[in-house]
Amino acid sequence: MSGKKSRYEVIMAGSGGQGLVLAGIMLGQAALEEGKVVAQTQCYEAAARGGFSMAEVIIDSEEILFQQVQRPDIVLVLTEESMEKFCHYATEGTPVFYDTTLVKARKGKNLAGFPFTQIASDLGNVASINILALGAIIAKVPVVGVESMEKEVRKRFRGAALEMNLRALKEGARLVNRP
């Protein structure tokens, strides 16, 4: 089974408008399609655009009794504020992906910076940052299969937005798999 576990916990944090709540919902839906049990929570400040935003997703093969992430398998941070809040997970052995476009560069084991915002912009829509990041997450940690995530993207988007988000998903995976 090539390292696949029965339970995964994911934290995605940034600011309102980056699509992290939608990303959490989509990740959860993709896992449901695979027959998994899912708990997805979200929090965001009252000022939706620009304020702190976070989605947590737990995916398990069995009933989920506690619905908050306790031991994340991967953390995504897209703002400096989020990095300050969650960077400690890297020292505990959890991969922490961060956006080098918006977050100060850091060095350390388990810290991986990628220019998510810049790449999403180069692809034609900065709003696809969430899908780009999902591609990177599932390439690093097999939370859900690529096919399940592609299916979820196809359900959510149409026309040019569909094609752009499929490209973003694939580019996110390529980022992580580059030598």
- What do the pLDDT scores average to? 93
CATH-scheme architecture = 3-Layer(aba) Sandwich
Report, as a whole number of angstroms, the end-to-end distance: 24 Å
Find the CATH topology: Pyruvate-ferredoxin Oxidoreductase, domain 3
Question: Over all CA atoms, what is the radius of gyration?
Answer: 15 Å
Structural category is: alpha/beta
Order of strands across the main sheet: 2-3-1-4-5-6
CATH superfamily: Pyruvate-ferredoxin oxidoreductase, PFOR, domain III
Q: Shape, please?
A: globular
Q: What is the domain total for the residues?
A: 1
Please render the helix and strand layout as text.
Elements: E1 7-15, H1 20-33, E2 37-44, E3 52-60, E4 74-77, H2 80-86, H3 88-91, E5 96-99, E6 111-114, H4 116-123, H5 129-140, H6 146-156, H7 159-177
Parallel strand pairs: 1-4, 4-5, 5-6
Antiparallel strand pairs: 1-3, 2-3
Helix pairs in contact: 1-6, 4-7, 5-7, 6-7
Main attributes of the structure:
alpha/beta; Pyruvate-ferredoxin Oxidoreductase, domain 3; 7 helices; 6 strands; globular
Overview of the structural elements:
By secondary structure, the chain is an alpha/beta fold. It is 42% helix and 21% strand. It has a six-stranded mixed β-sheet with strand order 2-3-1-4-5-6, sandwiched between helices. Strand 2 (37-44) and strand 3 (52-60) form a beta hairpin. The chain is globular. The chain starts with 6 loop residues before the first strand and ends with a helix.
Summarize this structure briefly.
The protein is an alpha/beta fold and about 180 residues long.
